[in-house]
Amino acid sequence: MRRRLLVIGNWKLNGNKNTITNLTITLVNTFCNISKCSVAIAPPVMYLDIVKRYLLNNTHIQLCAQNVDIHLSGAFTGEISAEMLQDCNVRYVLIGHSERRIHHKENDAYIAKKFFILKKVGLIPILCIGENKREYDSGCTQSICINQIKTVIKLLGIEALKNSVIAYEPIWSIGSGVSASPESVQMVHKSIRDYIASYDVSVADEIIIQYGGSVTPENVTQFFDQKDIDGVLVGAASLNANSFAMIVQTAEKHKKLYLS
Ligand code: PEP
Q1: Is 258 a domain residue?
Q2: Catalytic residue among 99, 106, 131, 169
Q3: 14 falls in which pLDDT band (50, 70, 90)?
Q4: For the whole prediction, is pTM greater than 0.70?
């Protein structure tokens, strides 16, 4: 088993042509020697094409989209299709982010349809899952996460999780400055991997399970030190070139990369 650490920066609804261009140029220059971990950035969809132009000669940074529609084309005003994202060299797509679940009322069944359409065109879904504070306080974290994954497996089968990514993001931790403890995240990740292994051991062994929630350059090593944490999904800290670069450099140098 060998899983590469995957670091993704989610820029959410931030930036403009100028700041996005500057941030991208800085990261392209900073990451020219990155080879051991995988890195992706998720700009607002408006700017995917601008970012793409700067990444063209840089194979070290991949493009990630923040959302996708469940349809490939047609009368769906305002939506973006998986084929359009593919046309812009996008490789990963976030689905099920708690901000979409909360503000856009997206449920597990709808998110599973997004998962399906991404697999159909060959893009890599990053399935975001996680519990809210009330669920955390009542000790249901693991069952909430498993149920969110179960909907995808029921609709598409366990094979769909091959070459897919899961991002465990406790909702109470996102943007709060309070990260979950690395030990508790490890327990959740292990329960997710064990659950997937109950269907297929090799899929469980290979799937990348990232953690997201107030990750910073200061706390990221403790997450990478955990056996079942295979990367991080970074929000706020990814908007700062220095912070994001430090997180990526930490991944690049982490000893886990040499384990097999
Ligand atoms: C996120 O939005 O996916 C996220 C993890 O944000 P932050 O790092 O700001 O908590």
Answers
A1: no
A2: 169
A3: very high
A4: yes
